[in-house]
Amino acid sequence: MPKDSGIGASPKRREDVRFLTGRGQYTDDININGQLYVHFLRSDMAHATINGIDTSEAEGMPGVVRVFTGADFEGVGSIPCGWQVTDRHGEPMQEPAHPVLAQGKVRHVGDPIAAVVAETYAQARDAAEALVPDLEELPAVIDMKDAVKDGTTKVHDDLTSNLCYDWGFVEENRDAVAKAMDEAAHVTTLELVNNRLVANPMEPRVAVGDYNPGTDDHTLYTTSQNPHVIRLLMGAFVLGIPEHKLRVVAPDVGGGFGTKIFHYAEEAFVTFAAKQIGRPVKWTASRSEAFMSDAHGRDHVTKIELALDAENNFTAIRTETYANMGAYLSTFAPSVPTWLHGTLMAGNYKTPLIYVNVKAVFTNTVPVDAYRGAGRPEATFQLERVIDKAARELGVDPLALRRQNFITEFPYATPVAVEYDTGDYEATLSKLEEIADISGFEARRRESEAKGKWRGLGMNCYIEACGIAPSALVGQLGARAGLYESATVRVNATGGLSVMTGSHSHGQGHETSFAQVVADMIGIDDGMVEIVHGDTSKVPMGMGTYGSRSLAVGGSAIVRATEKIIAKAKKIAAHLMEASEGDIELKDGQFTVAGTDKSVAWGDVTLAAYVPHNYPLEEIEPGLEETAFYDPANFTYPSGAYACEVEVDPETGHVTIERFAAADDFGNVVNPMIVEGQVHGGLAQGIGQALLENCSYDEDGQLISASYMDYAMPRADDVPMFDVDHSCQTPCTHNPLGVKGCGEAGAIGSPPAVVNAVIDALQSGGKNVMHIDMPLSPNRVWAAMQGA
Amino acid sequence: MSHVSMKVNGKEVGGEVEGRTLLVDFLREDLKMTGTHVGCDTSQCGACVVHVDGKAVKACTIFALEAEGAEVTTIEGMANADGSLGVVQAAFQEHHGLQCGFCTPGMVMAGAALLKENPKPSEAEIRQYLEGNICRCTGYHNIVKAIMAASGQDVEPPAVAAE
User: Fold this and answer.
1) How many CB atoms lie within 10 A of CB A567?
2) CATH of the domain spanning B87-150, picked from 3.30.70.980, 3.40.50.1220, 1.10.150.120, 3.90.1720.10
3) B98 in contact with A at a CB cutoff of 8 Å?
4) Which of A170, A205, A600, A745 has the most CB atoms lying inside 10 A of its own CB?
5) Are A755 and A774 in contact (CB under 8 A)?
């Protein structure tokens, strides 16, 4: 019988009611008495010297309160980077300054030059048009391989070149990998592009700064996935505000997908300006601004080589990747092509030798950082595409080639420094074959052929690493932060609970699923548990939500804090029942003495904690509130197998997704409905990357895909109904819930399935096409068909 | 500045607006009805869909003054008289047709308008009708299901784990 509450149930989401009735409170819905509005003048050139800015006309315009330029931020800190990568020679990466408003030079289209603060938005916008910047255009550095050639214009004059770092992993394996390549029976080589994307949460970024001169308290309301991280980065590194004087609130946030992890200049601006002016200052990004100021994602150019022996066993993998950093280092940018990418290059396979080389490059483009999956989609795409290509070259079944090389014993230490705790790749692949009805494919192919369409089937596996940890390890890898999570469980006198979590929900439904976990542990109704998040004044220092970490890390912290609550509550119950603490059992919200009919209810114990008349005061303190910080022992490793069926129109090259199936192993599942929703969303984003989305710059550095007119977001009629399954479950062995994380899987596993399917369709149509770079637009597919 | 008056969710409202003030800005900034959202600046995303005289309209595509005398319905006006969720809203909750909730007001308003025109739409008809509404979270799967369910057609219930 299905459960209707607690772990494993799919209760309706409690947050939905406010979202469905227009009562959500997103940052742009916050209006503070006396607030002003800021509009940023952004560079329309990719690279230029700022000779000066004439602000006089703008300053005299109606409603204008103040105009800021880069000069106003001298003495203010640089927007910091949170991860320092060490290159293959042991040297730290090159790290440029990133001013809040451009100083001396602009380095990408969208770089903010000046800011007009006015009484209304319209007045701020009007006045910004009257600003006259004197910009002297410089050559723009756009192509990554050109960027690192000798004599190329530098994005940052004070750096030695446009190379941020040249990373080798594992550097000690380099020669052995080269030898294995030389000795291989077969080497398959593939050069590919992982296209630049824009995350595009539907809520554009917003920031509201407020300052109380009476108490010297600063408040920033912002669209963030991790308000504490913003408080630390902005307070300590940019504005010099101690954390106890800076509150950061991220209320309802309309999607993140990575791009709302990072600390942005606009957040520092409104906080700074609110104090300078003495009135609240609000900024709301337009979508056009979002395209040229939100950190972008992906943008790797890679050559991968897969070596096989005569029996088709994988013997070595070697990759060389150019990774675009853009013009400045966004908060976690350096970690994405390195530790979130290189460590995943083993995939689901027992390849003994792997060497990953990554050259991170500065260009005159918007900074690039983590986007749903962050490094892991790039790794999966390379690996699962090169395996399909190898199978085609060798004339073997691509699934048989994968199965033959599967890791089958766990724990498994990969040659790229991580240890998978659990997994069962055969189980998810077999499940996939079932739910995708692979045996019926040939019949469907014939039906498509009868309609004049070429049908293709693409499959692949994936592995993900979630909940990046432990802190001691990531510190060695260059993280300038810990990667634990916090939780405070506050039990109220009448038995209800407030759970303060450092995780942040911006679509994931934590208010529902986290409550299920706590209610399940105590045996009470979910409705007695309230989840509080997104406010540094309410929640202990937390690291926020990204990398599919919320339940695995944040949920574990909640479990630990709830365990402390239960332990103390048992002591109180033992006292009330005059029994030994060791004999107390908690079930369905009742404390009982084992082997007797004595019991007290949850509410009796919580009341006693706060009205301690009959209470063991000599042993324990009154009250029932506990905090836990959980620092995981390892990553978690979800995995799975995906299948995509496409039809290609031989006349136009247009691709349609006819079927898509996903079999995932997320370990234990708390709320199946939410998990499936996460997979659906990830699949649409991965399909979007594979077929539609492309963030495009011209050679002068103009961003030519800066609106929904030009950047093709997946729409309802671009995707099919999805067949998803998460019944294969190998629980994580090192966290208390046995959960692995499900947020990014769909976006990681789906692009290679789509591309593999299109290649299969073209091959079935007699076109010997081995690869097309994403997005597989009709134009690209048609062009590939013509040359084959 | 000009005076504009209209009926929003059955209530007479008015205000002084500039000629360039969009209906969505009048709703959000003047009336402080923040349920209607703005997700783009090219009339592509559909987060701002409201009903104007019964028709689905992107509130960023018309000026407030163009709605003079009109009957406007927003997401705040979609619940039943007793405050419970309306049919389309309830179906979105039941079938997990929303995640972050930002596109949701526009999706609900578009879905409701579709069902007025076409009470039993097919999956393909729903997908085609929603072409002007972008959701980044759900992959549309559960939005399509929710609208099907709201139209009284059979759909599978949300996934649950066996005990």
Assistant:
1) 12
2) 1.10.150.120
3) yes
4) A745
5) yes
* pLDDT tens digits, one per residue of B39-79: 999 999 999 999 999 999 999 999 999 999 999 999 999 99
Q: What is the set of domains in chain A, with CATH numbers? A: 27-138+202-255+260-293 (3.90.1170.50), 296-469+634-787 (3.30.365.10), 484-630 (3.30.365.10)
Within a 13 Å sphere around the CA of A552, how many CA atoms are in the beta-carbon half? 30
Look up the ipTM and state it. 0.98
Report chain B residues whose CB lies below 8 A from the CB of A14: none
Enumerate residues 6+ apart whose C-beta is below 8 A from A613: none
Output the DSSP codes for A312-327: --EEEEEEEEEEEEES
* CB–CB contact A716 B20 (8 Å): no
pLDDT of A469 higher than 90: no
Q: With 0-12 CB in 10 A as exposed, 13-18 as middle and 19+ as buried, what is A240?
A: exposed
Query: What is the per-residue pLDDT for B161?
Result: 64
Identify which of A31, A682, A684 has the shortest CB distance to residue B140. Answer: A684
Residues of A in contact with B109 (CB under 8 A): none
Domain B2-76 CATH assignment equals 3.40.50.150: no
Q: Which amino acid makes up residue A773?
A: D
Nearest chain B residue (CA) to A290: B40
Domain ranges of chain B: 2-76, 87-150
pLDDT tens digits for A137-165? 999 999 999 999 999 999 999 999 999 99
The shortest C-alpha distance from A334 to chain B (Å) reads 26
Dihedral pair phi/psi, residue A627, rounded to 5°: -125, 145
Nearest to B102 among A202, A509, A707 (CB): A202
